[in-house]
Structure formats: structure tokens, C-alpha cells
């Protein structure tokens, strides 16, 4: 190595690392709450809330909630955090699948044995050597596009230095990789809605709750369950929105819930439940629009001033385009809601001050783009959007939606840098990509080509649990030469990997985060609580070690320690102007309160007051009830305005004994996180399996009683679950929470109950290529032949005393990194550097050409303040985005 590429060893020997390693940074413990008890209570924060960790003799023994910071701490915080820290499912050492270790030089790695054969414990250098060689061999022989990162989303933990960011930074230093685009949460609407209403909407702040309390007469929950889903969030949940929901209810607001099943929110908010056939919401809102038009309740003045294309959509509603008027009787046959009820609901919403909240789950369906769009059009038809307490919102159920926004910048971590690879894979299309390299696909109005993937590199993401049709994915993975996975626990994503690296949990390292996805009114220190379990390392240090192995340690670390990066991240937040870092770190948090005026903020309010001065970021600057751009794509499955299209699988075409499966977010987990917590499983699992909610009539027909094991199956797979009988789910529909850990029995059935063995890889449309997880049919029967207990939480077989031969460094060819490094960022503009250093956001693309100019304009108003850009910096970044967006003039 040259003096310009120092190794970590040389850095440490030089003594520079001592900076930041003593004094303030060595002081982690807060004062004890109880002065007579032992003092070790250490501040930390998670997706489930902030807390004081109780530590005795170096061990975590308890979790203390902090009432002034967490409005309603829940069981995931109080039980799950401690349970999973020392759970048997922890990965304690680097592991390599036996056939891969034995045959890495010959290439006979037997990929068909993934998930079936034992792992061998190795040292870190052996694992790093094998990974480095595979990465460089692949980049040299096939190009960097053959390396695929499945680490999208960043939900692994609440910190800024989360694994997907660390992985992205590392891989981009060696030329980049193929990445995913879009996500699972709201993949359809995040592509459609910017063209319709000028913003993603699904990730946008909602009208301040006090405005709702003081103005809203009717609040409609369409598949929306805020009481459940606000239990967690992308950053640190603080649960401050629960009391405001109660105030809104108690102030006389009437709640209506349109849903196939009654929810916790319906109970809490005293909502009227209107039971609907899953995936038929477009038919309902179309029929309500028909009735509004028939009764003359539409707001023509509003549509003339604030919308375009209303006449084309109204022609469809009236049946002028297809000869089928969208009457309440027409919709009743599809939705199974009485026509009289549809009329009553339409009139109520039209004449009342109405807020409509649509869940993300609505668009996780075939033709999912249509659903939120239909809600927007109905609200525009009745003149609601932008008025205080009225309109539409698609993130009420998440992240404290409705809490006043601080509007202040938050900590920003390390830049991922430029990815030189332009190939993408839509997030729900991984299986298709692996199966069909070279195949063309459309996404966001552009055409792409699936690359030929040789490496799947996964960090902190359980993609094996949330990809649809899991059996098909397992088969597709056999075509891949290398699968690497970095995780804290033996999740599904690690059990089908070749090399597994043990990540430390956030309790075993330092990090930083924020409170409230939308309020952003608190900055939290995620202070190290205990020493790493086994030989685990933080994600930062894992990639630091791999970078060091490949001679790019200086570029990855900037010559700094993790705590130095954390301090720099904090200094970029608005809180640093009021609270010095040492004070923040000692206390564990800093506040940056929302201004008083934020409590009266209305979504789309400025547009409503003056649409000429405050146009939306759509082609017309108005709400596009008909979108010429989308229509111009000429997609059979996504036309230019929202229409009802029959699904390939739903109750309208189901056979007599089939049921429709919905898979909502779980109550006691964050997707798959917390599934290994024994105390949480005791609260809800049935005979150790995932519960299924079944209508009593459906259960009686099949001889299923409460607590029985049930086999659910279709031509894609089979799962075993436990029956929970209920009158609060409509007949013909069953509900299984997504995200449990899988365990296959000898017949190939998931003995744990992972619903994605049933779900389909059918795309939403050619516009978004998004998931259709909620468009699925299956059959079910009482299970009489379950094979023993669920073993999803046990370690795979591990060989501890295997003799591992030393690897000759000459074979690795590590010097190949230098040729890749020479070209990186050589021609970057100042705006490009600022974007990649400071503006990467969780739901925006990492490649600028994946968004149109208007899509970037729609997200920068929230992105720039969070990044803390001044006016000049914002202008430079805007210029870079506009010059390189997907629809920018070609240079």
C-alpha cells in the first residue's frame, strides 16, 4: 500500500485513532434513575422507541421506557429488544457454507445445497478474502452490473450508519453495482402520484392534527390502521400521535373505516366499519363519483381552477367511454357493499368536511396505481383537497403522520457516493431479474434491461422473507454464483447464503437517529450499551475491514473513527446550533421543537390558496384527474385515469373453496424483526405458528376450531398457521401478518407460516413494476400432519472444528482495485458531489436519472432542509438534478 492509501493498521499505529476515543466518547452511562441502585443505565433508541438500557456486569438485563420521550411504549421495546439481543438465533462468528468453502477455487460450489447444508466457522480474514476475490473476479470478468445489492430500504435499524448505507459506500468505491429501485411499502403510488398530484404523497407529511381536530367532520380510513402501524417507524418511534387521535375522536369527528377486516384503529376511534371485497376500492370510489354527479354535488368551480382532465375521467364514470355507467348497483356487485350504502356514503363525504386517509396496502395490488388515484379524483370532484381539515392523505398511518413538523435539518451520515452502474431492478422483480437476464422491462416511463447477476450481496435486509413467491426465489438463486449476507441474526436471508458475516446489534455500537419521521423534533444518541456478542462487528466496521482488505480503507473512512462521523452527522443538524455535541451525547437527546405555525399547517393548503403562485409539481401544475403523460406510455395495465380493472386473482373470479389472503403489517413485529422474541411469540403465536384470522363461517365449513393448525395452499406453495376465529373479518377473506421467519418441512411447506410462500410475483403494472402482495387466492384446510414444532428460530448446523486452509493473498488479485479507483468521480460537478454526500434519502433514488425533473422538484422541498443545504448549495444540486433527470434534454 502507498502512503496515499494507508491501512487501518498504519493509521492506528500512528496514534491518530486516539482522537475521539477518550474523555467524552468513553463516557456512555447516564445517571441512574434510582440513586440507590447500580448506576449503569445507558441511553439508546430504536424503531420501537427511545429507552434507558439497564446493564449489570456488562449484560443487558432490562429496558426502561422514558415517558417524556415516548408517548406509549409497547411490548416490542419492553420485551423484544432484550429478548433478541442474546437470542439463540444470533450470528456470532463469520460463517461459510461448506461446499462453497471447499470448492471456491474450482467453482463447484453446489448452489442447490443453499439452505440445506451446514456452515463452517471461519475467521474474519478468510471471509474477507473470499468476498474480495469474488467481487473483483465478477467486476473484472462480467462488469460491476453483475454485482447486485439487495440491501434496499434501510429498515435494518434506526441509525444513520445502517448497513445498506455502509454497503453502498463500499461498493461504489469499487465501481458500484446493480441496485433496486422503488420499494415494497408504496412502490406503485410513489411512481404514479407525483404525476397526478405532484408529490409522492405516500411519504409526505400530513395536515397538522389540530387542524383535523378543529375542522374535520368525517374522517375516512381506507385500509388505514394508524393505531397499529404507528407502533414502529423508519427512524425512532415516539408514539406522540396516539393522544391526538383521541382528541380528534372526542371532538366529534365521525370515523368511517372501509376495510375487509375491523382493525384496532376502528375500535379506538369508534369507527363505523364498512366491509369491502379486497382490491375493489376503485369500483367503490368510481360509483360514489357517479352518484355525486347524478345528484349535482360535484364542485365544478374547484375542478376548473385546480384540476385538469376531469372531463375525460367523468366520461368514464358516466359510461360514455365503455358503455358501462359506474352506478352504485354496478359497484355493489363488485365490492359487495349495498348500493344504498354507497349512495349514503357518497352524499355524506360530498357535503361534509371530509378527510380521506388511504393506506399504502391499497396499492400493493394488481393495478395498484389506480386506487390512490381514484381517491384523489373523488376528493377533487367534491372540492376537498387543500382546505383545512379536508382532502386526501396517504401517510396518516405511519411515522406520526399529523404531528407538527419542525422543518429543521436532521443528522446526515456518510455519503454512498456515485454508483457507476446504471442498471436497476425494481424492488419486487428480483426473481424475474435472476431468471431472465437480458430481458427488457419498463419502469417509470423508461425501458431497462435485466443484468446477468453473479453475486447477490445482502446487508441488513431480509429479502428472502419479503419477496413474493418464495419457492420461486429459492429456485432462481441457484443460478447465482455467490450469495453474501451480513446480519445480526440467522434470518431467511442468511440461511440461503454462501458467506455470512455477524453484524453487531445497535446496542453494541454507537449511532445517531431522529425522532418522528415527519415531526423530526428530536435527535437521539444511540449509545453503545454492551460489548458485541461473539465476534460480531458494527456494519461500519465490517465494511471498514473489507475496504482495508482491498486497499481502500482511507477512502471508506476518510481517516476517521465511527464516533467522529457520528459527531459530524450531528453537527449538520439544526439541533447543533442550540445544543453542543458533548451535551447532546451525555444527555442522549436534543430537541428541535416545531414552530407554532406548524400546528396550523394544511397539506396542499398553499396550492389551494393560490394555485398560480404555488403550482403542484405536475406537468400542468394542477391535479391531473387525467394524466396525459401516463396515458402516453400506452400501458395496457395502467391507463391515463383511474379505472376499475379486474384482478387476476380475487373473490370476483375465485373458485368456490378459495379465499382471498391479505397480509397486513404485524402488531408485534417490524416486518420480520422481532419474530425470534420468545416473550412476544407467547403473546400471539398459535402452537408456535403465525396466526391466521378467519371468519367463523369459513372456519365452520372446513371443520376448523379456534387454535387449530391450518394448512393454506395454492400452486405456489403451502404454509401452516394457527387459527384465530373472528366475526370482524368478512367471509371469504383471511388475514396473515407478513414477515415471519420461514422453516420448511419435509414436504416443502413453511411450518412457520410465512405468507410469501403463497403470494404472487404478478406486477402491479408496467409503470411501477410494484408488488401485488395483497392480490392472492388460496385454499385452506385443517392441518392434521404438521411435522413437529416450528424450528425457524434455531441455528443451522454449524461445524466449529473444521480445518480451514490458509488463503494465499497472491490468488486474490487485490491490486485490481487500483484500476477501478482511478476513474471514480474524476468529472463530478460540485452539485453532484453535494448530492451524493448529503442528499441521499430513504425513499428517493440513489441514481438521479431514475426520476423525472418534476419528480425531483416534488421531493427536494423536504430533502434540502433535511440535508441542511444553504441557498447556493440547493441551487447547485438542483442544477445537477435537472441536467441529469430521466427527461432532461440529452447532452
From TrEMBL:
InterPro entries per the UniProt record, alphabetical: Asp_de-COase-like_dom_sf (IPR009010), Cyt_c-like_dom (IPR009056), Cyt_c-like_dom_sf (IPR036909), Molybdopterin_N (IPR041460), MoPterin_dinucl-bd_dom (IPR006657), Mopterin_OxRdtase (IPR006656), Mopterin_OxRdtase_prok_CS (IPR006655), Prok_Mopterin_Oxidored (IPR050612)
> Does Metal-binding appear among the keywords?
yes
Cite the Cytochrome c domain residue spans from the record.
826-891
Q: What GO MF terms are annotated?
A: electron transfer activity; heme binding; molybdenum ion binding; molybdopterin cofactor binding; trimethylamine-N-oxide reductase (cytochrome c) activity
Identify the main location. periplasm
The domain of life is Bacteria
List locations, semicolon-separated: Periplasm
* Family annotation (Pfam families): Molybdopterin, Molybdopterin_N, Molydop_binding
User: EC number(s) of the enzyme?
Assistant: 1.7.2.3
Regions annotated as coiled coil: none
Q: Which GO terms describe its cellular component?
A: outer membrane-bounded periplasmic space
Biological processes, Gene Ontology terms: anaerobic respiration
Q: Which SUPFAM superfamilies match?
A: ADC-like, Cytochrome c, Formate dehydrogenase/DMSO reductase, domains 1-3
CC cofactor = Mo-bis(molybdopterin guanine dinucleotide)
Keywords in alphabetical order, please.
Answer: Heme, Iron, Metal-binding, Molybdenum, Oxidoreductase, Periplasm, Signal
Which family is this sequence assigned to? Belongs to the prokaryotic molybdopterin-containing oxidoreductase family.
Query: PANTHER family attached here?
Result: TRIMETHYLAMINE-N-OXIDE REDUCTASE (PTHR43742), TRIMETHYLAMINE-N-OXIDE REDUCTASE 2 (PTHR43742:SF10)
- Official protein name in the record: trimethylamine-N-oxide reductase
Recorded source organism is: Paracoccus limosus
